[in-house]
Amino acid sequence: MKVFSRKYGRVSAYILAALIMIYLSYSLPGFLPGDFVTAMYSSSHVTLTADQEAQIRAFYTQREGFIRYLVNLVTLNWGYSYAFLTPISDLILQALPWTLLLVGGAHMISMVFGFIAGVELAWRRGSYCEKIGVGSMTIMEGVPEIGSGVILLLIFALYLGWLPASGAETAYARHSAGEWAWDVVCHLTLPLSTLILAYFPGNFLLTRGSMVMVLKEQFVQTARAKGLPALRVRYVHAARNVLLPMATRFGLRIAFMVTGALVVETIYSYPGLGTLLFNAIGMRDLPLIQGIVLISSLMVLLVNLALDYIYGWIDPRVKHAY
Amino acid sequence: MHIDVRGELVRDPWFVTGMGLVLLLGLLVLLGPMLAPHDPHDMSFQPLSPPSAVHWLGVNDGGMDIFSELLYGMRNTVGFGLLTGIVALFLGVTVGLGASWFGGLLDQIMMRLADILLAIPAIMILIFTAALFRPSPVMLALILAIMSWPTTAKAIRSQALVVKNRLHIQASRQMGASACYIISRHLVPELFPLYLIGFATKARMAMFMEASLAFLGLFDPSRKSLGLMIGYALKYYYLNVWWNWIMPPVFLLTLLIMAVTFLAVSLEKVFDPRLKEAW
Questions:
Q1: What per-residue confidence (pLDDT) applies to A2?
Q2: What sign for the dihedral angle of Cα A282, A283, A287, A288?
Q3: Which residues from B are below 8 Å from A263, CB to CB?
Q4: Which of A231, A295, B35, B65 has the fewest beta carbons closer than 10 A?
Q5: Using CA atoms, how far apart are residues B242 and A184, in angstroms rounded to an integer?
Q6: Against a cut of 0.90, is the pTM above it?
Q7: With an 8 Å Cβ cutoff, is B275 touching chain A?
Q8: What is the CA radius of gyration of chain A?
Q9: Does the beta carbon of B151 lie under 8 angstroms from any beta carbon of chain A?
Q10: What is the mean pLDDT of residues B225-237?
Q11: Predicted pLDDT of residue A60
């Protein structure tokens, strides 16, 4: 019985979290003092006649039931953006691939290289190289994405002019497929480097810390005494034990890392969800904000859920513990 | 605690650097209104004028003195961080100790709730409420604190479960000490290092959140903030203002977050004996 309760306990926590998010996004706008119309037009320069206002209010205040809201959510029927006058699902689905490319790529690269660097430097413990690495990475850990993003932007895009400062591709340019790919890479470089600078130090420091501990264990000595090549001892025997803390840390922090990605996208006007959200906030486009907030929260929950399964795959002991 | 914690902290370069930065920035925060040469909301100066003896860092596009803005903005950022840190710590300690001491159903419910909160991106809730209701920064800090206690609570709970079963606590139970006495006299003081670490990480996260939210334009635009200043300044990147307008808030924000990070790293290293071997 215990076997099931924990596993399903965690899964049900995610499902509950998802439902809470959906319900909040459904119900919170209802608590607005006044309504969307007041919120949008009270501070704008447009003055409405009483007749117009009544019409608009009647259009925007039709409330659907929660079940209807859920069905609409699943069928991608997320309503219309007030500012862009296009379906919200179109806007979000256009922006999503860029965000996934940027954030996913940054996580991949910083994890793989953070892992390798951590393992290698833990192996060379006490060397000059290791001390410099740990020191500089601890300093980097203290630099927020806003800081590194703005500095990289100033140096590489504005002062040196090597890389484009904004966008994800050159607008209106007719490219062959190869040129287009290169163009995308050029635009991706700066935001991607900023995110890697933010994610890499944490991965590196954690891997190194756990690896130093693992290297003290007896099975490592046994492996070395058997005469196995050092590379094999390091990666096949020792380093795999570090994967679990890394996955745990990733799961704990992903909800907070969303903030950094938002800011970086905004700094470089990268056309992902973050910039879309920034524009929506600027134009007080509430349905669009609602859609983006909900979709990105659900995506974070999905990643967390996936991680739970990955734990069991990384470390079979976890599966037995349930 | 039988290790010489104080001596070890003083000898740790990270702690010394972090503490030095915190003291320096703390002084700036406390003395801000006295140091600021102008009222940061005074819009009567020549917009975009370069730095001079009167305006040390020049004047921004709205005719406001940048140096004074900087000092006031930092106060807001730090205040947000401290408030969130304190409230989140209080909630985390209460829930963590309560869950570990009483166990059973309360423990189960609290930890499930923690799991749920951990999985929800706090920034999204903040953005949504900020966009809908335009609440005051204090309100947002409280929401952030309510969203972010679980990590502290979990750390404290697991450590409290270990401490709870130590001999001296069993002994005091044996002698008839009440739950209240044991919690307040034994558990609370013995978990002290965890509070420091929890507070530092929470305050760091909150300051970063505040800067990001302000940068995204979710606060009242007249409220001075480092993030808001960066956002405005970046719009004028094509002017030659990078060193007197864009960089100062970026630099200050980085220093703030760095100082707290160093303290957190150093405290974790000194108080967690397992980690210490790794350094």
A1: 43
A2: negative
A3: 212, 215-216
A4: A231
A5: 27
A6: no
A7: yes
A8: 24
A9: yes
A10: 85
A11: 66
Tell if the CB–CB gap between A256 and B123 is shorter than 8 Å: yes
Q: Determine, for residues A13 and B253 on separate chains, whether the beta-carbon distance falls below 8 Å.
A: no
Mean local confidence (pLDDT), B201-225: 87
Q: Using a CB–CB cutoff of 8 Å, tell me whether B48 touches chain A.
A: no
In the beta sheet, which residues pair with residue A80? A87
Token pair of B102, please?
């009483």
List, as one string, the DSSP characters of B144-164.
HHHHH-HHHHHHHHHHHHHHH
Taking the C-alpha atoms of residue A13 and residue A9, their distance in angstroms, rounded to an integer, is: 6
Chain A nearest CA to B130, separation (Å): 10
Write the pLDDT tens digit of every residue in A92-111: 888 888 888 898 899 999 99
CA angle A26, A29, A30 (to 5 degrees): 90
Q: Is residue A270's pLDDT more than 80? A: yes
Alpha-carbon B150 to chain mean position: 15
- Letter for the amino acid at A181? A
Binary contact (B133, A300; C-beta < 8 A): no
How high is the pLDDT of residue A4?
44
Task: Note whether ipTM > 0.85 here.
Answer: no
Contact B60, B245 (CB under 8 A): yes
Mean predicted confidence (pLDDT) in A290-299:
86
Q: What is the DSSP letter of A241?
A: G
* Count of positions (residues) in chain A: 322
CA A321 – CA A174 distance, rounded (Å): 57
Tokens of B211: 């800067």
Those residues with Cβ within 8 angstroms of residue B235's Cβ, 6 or more apart along the chain or in another chain:
B61
